[in-house]
Amino acid sequence: MKAERSEIIKMRQEFLDLKEGALGTHFGILNKQIAEGSSGFLFDYGITAADLILFQHICHMSMGILDGIPKTYVRDNFMSLEEFRLKVAGIPEIKARFQDPNNRYHGSAYTVNWTVDEDEKE
What we know:
Strand content: under 5%
Radius of gyration: 15 Å
Shape: globular
Distance between the termini: 26 Å
Largest sheet: none
Number of helices: 6
Structural class: mainly alpha
Number of strands: 0
Order of helices and strands: HHHHHH
């Protein structure tokens, strides 16, 4: 049984709720952990596989391809996670990968210079 688009959007928005949504509250915890740490990553001793997974999730959510999730959700609600995205995207090896114009994510949330036009927020 396939859910209707409006039902999917409603469920996602509940999931994103900053006070009660599973993802909203989880991102709040991760945002605080990064903000209070000294490395700019999840753990003070530097980047880990967990950071790369979080980076991938943040970027995917910011692409605007998931109905009901605004491209600016992370940027507008989690300053430390947005700074984290920029930090990881700026790692030379990661930056080089997405600078290639043949890479499907070139110019996307996976890059340091990505921006969202205010007209494209949704």
